[in-house]
Each structure stands twice: as C-alpha cells, then as structure tokens.
Amino acid sequence: MAGAPNREYKNSLVRWIEYRLPIFSLLDHTIGRDYPTPKNLNYWWSLGAVLTIALIIQIITGIFLAMYYVPTAEGAFDSVERIMRDVNSGWMIRYIHSNGAALFFAAVYIHILRGMYYGSYKRPRELLWFIGIIIFILMMATAFMGYVLPWGQMSFWAATVITNLFSAIPWVGDSITIWLWGGFSVGSATLQRFYSLHYVLPFVIFGATIVHIWAIHVHGPNNPKGISVKGPQDTIPYHPYFTTKYMVVFGIFFIALAFLVFYEPNYLNHSDQFKRANPLVTPANIVPEWYFLPFYAILRSIPDKLMGVVAFGGSLMILFILPWVDTSRVRSGAFRPVFKQFFWIFVADVILLGYIGSQPPAGALLIIGRLATVYYFAHFIIILPLVGWMERPKPLPESIAEPVLKGEGGQ
Amino acid sequence: MADSAQDDDGVTRRDFFNVAAVAASVVGAGLAAWPLINSMNPAADVLALSSTEIDLTPIEVGQSITVVWRGKPVFIRRRTEAEIEQARADDKASLPDQELDADRVQNPEWLVMVGICTHLGCIPLGQKAGEPRGDFGGWFCPCHGSHYDTSGRIRRGPAPRNLEIPEYIFLDDTTIRIG
Ligand code: HEM
Ligand code: FES
Fold it and tell me: Is B147 a catalytic site residue?
C-alpha cells in the first residue's frame, strides 16, 4: 500500500492524528488520492465498491433485526411477524435486509463474471481470486442460514434438504448430520446455532474483504485491457475519479433496493414462507432463493445422491482451478475472439441452469438440466484449456495509455 | 549456542525442540477444540426424549397414520393382503438396496418406518388416500422423484436407501413403543 510520499495535511487536527496513527494516509493509499488506478477501468469495476456497501447495509439492518428476533422454534416465526407488524419501521428494516441480500448476490455474480471475462484470476492475482471465492462461499452459507431464521415452511425444508447433503458422506455422514442439527432432525437447536453463525459470519466476511482489498493493492487492479500498468501515464488517482464514477452505480443500486423494498418487497420471496414451519408436511416443490438455483439444478440433475452432492460442491470448487485451466496468456477477453463467445455461452448456460432449478425435476427439463450441468463442467475442464491453446488472440496494445491518447476510448 | 549441539546431518537440538513444541501445541489446540465441537452434538435432554408409545386400535386395514418420534415423522401402515403379497413378490425384483420384506417387519400386517426420504429428507407422499403412491404402489417423494414400494424399499429415483426402520417393540397386540 506504499506509494506516493505522505502528503502534508492542511487541517491541524488531521495532522495531529496522522502523526500518531497514520490513518488518513492509509485511506488515501487504499481508496483515495494516493491510490494510482488504471485509467481505463469501466463501470464493471464498480461492483466491488457496491459489494462493500451491500455488506455494510446487511450488517446494520441485521443488528437492528437481532434486537427483536427470537431464535427458537416456538418463537421465531411470531417474532418476525411482530417485526413486520408492531416494531416501528420493522417491516422496512426486514425488507431492506431480505432484498438487500438478493442485490448483494446480484452484485457478486456480476463481479465474478467480470473477473472471468477480463481474466482477473490470472497471474499474479490467483490468491486474490481465491479469497474472492472464499468470500462467495461464506456469503452463501450466511444467506442460507439467514433464510432459515424466519422459520417459515421454506426455511425449514431448505434447512432439511441442505443439511441432509452431508448425510451423503460415506460412513460418517449420518453422525455429521446429527451433529449439525444438534438433534435428530432440524429443530430449535439447529435454529439457534444457525442464528449464532448468521450473526458472526458477516464479520468474518468483512475481515476477508480487507484481505481481498489488501491483495488487490499488491499488484493493483486488473483492467479492461488486461495489460499491466507501465507507468504513471497509465493511471489516475482513485479519488476523485473513480469515487465519483462509482457514485452513479451506488445510485442505481439504491434505486433498485428502494424499488424492491417499497414496491415489490415479496417479489423474490416464496409464498410458503408465510406459513409456519411444519416438520410433517413437505411443500410441493422445494425451491431455494433465486441466487442458489443454478447450483441446486446441478445437485438435482445427478440421479445418485453422493455424486449429486459431489457435483454441487464441485461446481463451486472448480472456480479455484480457473487460473490454471485457462491456458491463454492473454488476460482480457476483449482480445480473445473465441473465448469471448464461449464466455457468453457459459453465462447463458448458468442462467438456463437457474431456470431449471426453479422447476420441478421431471421430463424434458431433467434431460436439459443434465446437459447444462455437463456443459458447466466442460466449460472449465475442456473448453477453456483448448481455447487457450488454439485461439489466436488479437494484438495487444503497447500500453493502457496508448489507445486512450489516440482517442479510442477506454474499451 | 545450540549450534554447538549440532550433529552430522545439520539437525540441531533447537530444531527438535521447535518441532516438539509445535506438535504439542497442535495436539493441545485439537484437545481444546473437542469440547467445543462436541457441544454441538444432541444434548442429554434431547437424547432423553427418545421413545413414544402408540395405540394401534384405531387404524383400519389399508390405513396409515403418521406419528412424531424424535421430531421426525414415523409412518405406521396396516397393510392389506395384496400389499403384503406384492412386497414379498418384490423381494425378487432388482432392488437398489437389497432387503427382504420379512426383515423389515415384525408383524407383516404392520409396516413401521421413519417417514423421511433417504435422499435429502423430504416426507414422501402416500400416507393419505388420494396422494400419489409412485410406480410401485408404496410412497412417492415429490422433491426429486423417489419411488418406494409397499415395503418402503427404494425402487427408482435418487434416494440411496430404503426407508429406515426405527427400533420398536410390540408391547401387546395393539400397542407399540418406538425408540
Ligand atoms: C453477509 C451479510 C448478510 C446476509 C447475506 C444476510 C442474509 C439474510 C437473509 C437472506 C435473511 C432472511 C430474510 C427473510 O427472508 O426474512 C436474513 C435474516 C436475518 N438476519 Fe441476516 N444477513 C446478513 C447479515 C446479518 C447480520 C450481520 C445480522 C446480525 C447482526 C443479521 C441478522 C438477521 C436476523 C435477526 C434475521 C431474521 C429476521 C428476518 O428474517 O428478517 N444478518 N439474513
Ligand atoms: S428428498 Fe426425496 S427424492 Fe430428494
């Protein structure tokens, strides 16, 4: 995070603090005036900042929900209803929390796809990529456990189906599941531990985010051209250039959040969530939240229990090998004509899987789901290595500054 | 100073102490973690609540009831003659989880099973009249499409095992105790 020499701060209080604890220069170097940033970053680079804001919103609204929420099988559903009806602004805080989680995932998916398109996972950013995947998995765990807390029908059955995934592990599976439940089925003990973890994991995510940002600063961010910064002519300070650019995206994010919260607060919810959890009645079609659907479709497409679970885990873990299966030395998809097409086919495949995950598993959809699952893995294991070897990339520009100066724009 | 205790292959006493100290710390951390991990297992009062007695007299032939045991549904079905015969005939069918009907019942008329699909834990349909019972006349799990036969054995679908038989005893002809 070192860089420009420490500046003289004008304000004397700031100077007093800075001398004892150099927090202002730390901020300036991290997200401020002394952070040299590739000048061609486009709007897709704003998602990281959006994610940080989304995390903070979840933490703040969560802390206030926690003041009224009761984590027991008897009390949870009623306490959430109380938040909705009786607690001052409770409905709004809860709707911001539940819809905020959805937008958080929308942002993280775009953020990940941005990384995949521009090759941000390639040397020397492999560890940065790993930390990102770990954050993504922690987010999934947090959101899953949060979804269980209101103790509606879908909460209960999502918890049952997902914890039962562990029973597929040979020999020790059943003991692990009982250990996870703290009983012989999903119940109060399960709910309370989920609450404990749901409260703490976001702070773990926060810590991981700091490491993520630290790792970004070691080699600087990647950029749409995927070529490295050669000198000062390639960069501009993060503040005010990107801070203001990203304000536009924050505006879009808050408009989307306000639209959901005030006009369609239950659009992404499931009607079974308005029924109290009933361990004796399974809903007709168990569907997870939309952001889990592609992975859920992969799980269901495999007719064998253990292999289904392996494929489910594998579909996430395979992101870790991306830096090595992508054999191309060119980072950015902008210079890779063949890769670019396969990238969009992959995006379409994931969306298709998401649709299939939302439908009952039968007939033609089951077959299409299997093909889409095979394609998902083939993209990583077969297509990326082959494209990397066979494709002829377009010539790379000399530097980031060159086409900018010639007036070709940032793309 | 420890260098003076160096042997021929360059390993010092200090290296040994370092390795021993790290190893002891790892073991210590593991021992300290165990009570925490174990605290997540079912508590003593949960384990204590584990048996239920059921009166079978109100159940007619061809009817089923669902009772709760350890927070889980237990299916009790009074099977018809035709179902029992079907179950026995199916002993010879190709079964993913090989088991004889005779090994799954204490009294052929009464089939007692945990009503939880062995795939991912949904509750199969087929207990009430009018519910789908699958292609083998027993139970059908709608979650991912597992079919169970009249002995509760898995016949088709992603579930790996037959519906589990809980521990139970007949206290007399019309009462059982589960657990
Ligand atoms: C990564 C950040 C977080 C995510 C993605 C997240 C996600 C969720 C989700 C999806 C729900 C279910 C909402 C519903 O359908 O009603 C939920 C509920 C809840 N969360 Fe969070 N959450 C996060 C952080 C937090 C934090 C930090 C706290 C506490 C300090 C918290 C406290 C709660 C409480 C009390 C509920 C239950 C009330 C309710 O259902 O609205 N959450 N969370
Ligand atoms: S839980 Fe019954 S088929 Fe999956």
Answer: no
